[in-house]
């Protein structure tokens, strides 16, 4: 018997630092590289700027453009292409627990300030 868990695409967690922008990126991505959740921490104090999830993303056709704009204003946007398509992606693998810790902190911060 095949369980629902077995039907889900494998998930991986990565982090990458962009020195030019002083931003840490944390990604939860499926096996094809599509981003499921994304966190961005900016500056020396690593202030959360983005904590967006594909599963929460409003459907513009169903929910309207205003819902998409409101979500993006609060939680930011996801990468619009798979990370596997990026040239020289500097990401390194992290654990799910590490990602979840960063995710919870970023979401709590954005829920407070936006």
| H/E topology pattern | HEEEEHHEH
- Beta percentage is 25-35%
Helix content: 25-40%
Based on CA atoms alone, the radius of gyration comes out at 15 Å
Mean pLDDT: 91
Which sequence of strands runs across the widest sheet?
4-3-2-1-5
Largest sheet: 5 strands, antiparallel
The 3D shape can be described as globular
In total, how many domains does the architecture comprise?
A: 1
Counted by DSSP, the helix tally is 4
**Class from helix and strand fractions:** alpha+beta
- Annotation, overall tally of beta strands: 5
Low-confidence stretches: none
Distance between the termini: 45 Å
Structure overview:
By secondary structure, this protein is α+β, with helices and mostly antiparallel strands. The protein has one domain (9-113). The chain has four helices and five strands; from the N terminus they run αββββααβα. It has helices at 4-7, 60-63, 65-75, 96-113, and strands at 11-18, 23-30, 35-42, 47-53, 92-93. It has a five-stranded antiparallel sheet with strand order 4-3-2-1-5. β2 (23-30) and β3 (35-42) form a beta hairpin. The relative contact order is 0.21.
Q: Which properties best describe this structure?
A:
single chain, 114 residues, alpha+beta, five-stranded antiparallel β-sheet, 4 helices, 5 strands, 29% strand
């Amino acid at each position: 018997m095949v369980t629902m868990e077995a039907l889900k695409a494998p998930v991986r967690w990565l982090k990458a630092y962009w020195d030019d922008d002083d931003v840490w990126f944390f990604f939860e991505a499926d096996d094809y590289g599509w981003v499921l959740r994304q966190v961005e921490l900016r500056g020396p104090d690593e202030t959360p700027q983005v904590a967006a999830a594909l599963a929460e993303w409003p459907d513009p056709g169903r929910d309207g453009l205003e819902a998409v704009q409101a979500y993006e204003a609060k939680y930011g946007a996801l990468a619009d292409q798979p990370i596997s398509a990026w040239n020289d992606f500097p990401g390194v693998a992290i654990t799910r627990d590490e990602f979840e810790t960063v995710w919870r902190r970023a979401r709590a911060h954005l829920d407070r300030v936006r």
